[in-house]
């Protein structure tokens, strides 16, 4: 494989190759280098990621990252038990909070999703449900154009989450979540982060689960 095939990678001043989206700002670069694609398996961690993906819908991920600490303050550090107890006064408080993205439908969805997260504890929990949809293999993309925006697994996960009361979830959003938490590895071949999660091992031209 030649360097010419890695057309969507940018080599930074540190000599490390990243996709173009992760090389535009320090914030995105740091997120890509330290967090994106790494496994998240705790209930609170997954509830936060799912909530942030909800707020990102139709907007840029960089905007969400810039407001992330504000979201954490506003939503009790994404503790599902605390968010599930939010009422109308909290909705009004959040709609007046300039530190977050003030979208009433998304705010109400996050509160409903917190309640659904608590209800799921009787069925194994949010982490078990989400990770049960991990595919047997992951893509091995050379270019950004080779990365799908959804998958059969993200479609199945959407149906299951909706069936247990989650709102504002869809197969494209959930595929982005799967990428972000390492359920699939869509780091481009040639990126310095490819294979860094420990979830996947390279087998020829494909990658299979290690667990």
Automatic annotation (TrEMBL):
<protein>
    <submittedName>
        <fullName>DNA-3-methyladenine glycosylase I</fullName>
    </submittedName>
</protein>
<dbReference type="InterPro" id="IPR005019">
    <property type="entry name" value="Adenine_glyco"/>
</dbReference>
<feature type="binding site">
    <location>
        <position position="187"/>
    </location>
    <ligand>
        <name>Zn(2+)</name>
    </ligand>
</feature>
<dbReference type="GO" id="GO:0006284">
    <property type="term" value="P:base-excision repair"/>
</dbReference>
<dbReference type="InterPro" id="IPR011257">
    <property type="entry name" value="DNA_glycosylase"/>
</dbReference>
<dbReference type="InterPro" id="IPR052891">
    <property type="entry name" value="DNA-3mA_glycosylase"/>
</dbReference>
<dbReference type="GO" id="GO:0046872">
    <property type="term" value="F:metal ion binding"/>
</dbReference>
<keyword id="KW-0862">Zinc</keyword>
<dbReference type="GO" id="GO:0008725">
    <property type="term" value="F:DNA-3-methyladenine glycosylase activity"/>
</dbReference>
<keyword id="KW-0479">Metal-binding</keyword>
<dbReference type="Pfam" id="PF03352">
    <property type="entry name" value="Adenine_glyco"/>
</dbReference>
